[in-house]
Amino acid sequence: MSTEMISRICKGCGREIQVPGELTEFSCVYCGAKLSSADYGEGILPADESDRTYVEEHLLDCIRDHPNAFRHFNRKQYEPFYETFKEEIVPVYEAMDRYVCAQPGKRQALLEDFAELFVAQWETFHNNHPKAKSKSAREKQAFSDKLTLAWYMVPAIRELGLSVSEEFVESLHSRFNSRYPDNIFEPGTHEEISGGFRKHGFCFVTTAVCEAEGKPDDCSELTAFRAFRDGWLARTEQGSAIIREYYNVAPTVVAAMRYGDDEAQVCAELRRDYLTPCYEALLRESPEDCLDRYRAMVRMLRNRYGLQ
Question: Is residue 131 exposed (0-12), middle (13-18) or buried (19+ Cβ within 10 Å)?
Fold first, then answer.
């Protein structure tokens, strides 16, 4: 007869381990800490169905309650909004963690069920959105909510460090992108996204495209664009205002490309339709044509990512 395995969280390193149910003393396979069932009081209690009910009722609250979360994605507002957002989701994912850990033999199936439930609730909510009545309005709201998913919800779940965090994110990512192959997102971490602001990693669309193509920071195109920005453009009457406008919108655009879109496809489109024509205009000494094309690119990106 097979022995039932019980999920425990190591008191030494905090990682989840699987322990045969009949053992009263055991060691962590990761850090070697000596543990006993007495360390866990009465051990793991039977699954509480109220936890599952709570998760089912509140799983999509973080999306429903923050329809304009993407507007806080800037250098000043991201961190405080993220921290508030993370605090709000704690009860949901702690309930999920308790319910799943109480049934170690069903762990993967339960997490897949919760991921499937999230996608089903997402679809129902956006098909019947209380404020977005037209198809285009529903699609626009769904896209901005996907950015909330990528920029806030997934990083917050991962940062909570619960035993279910990474597995649920993996299941959700797989289910969501399978259901919406033309509207995918990529799971990031809070450190990656927050670091993008601190290290100016989200600053330049052209740099992001060149990096995606494997080009160095001092490639001929980036050198030409920087000379154009700091030289001819900065000396024009409206140049400073144009540069400021671009700096304000570029971080959100680059982060949306990286975590909330098909980055490879977007980069290919930007290269073909905007950056190559811009570079060619500079080579033939036509800065006005470069500026016109570049401003058209910024307008397109603002519209694509709802930054009007």
Answer: exposed
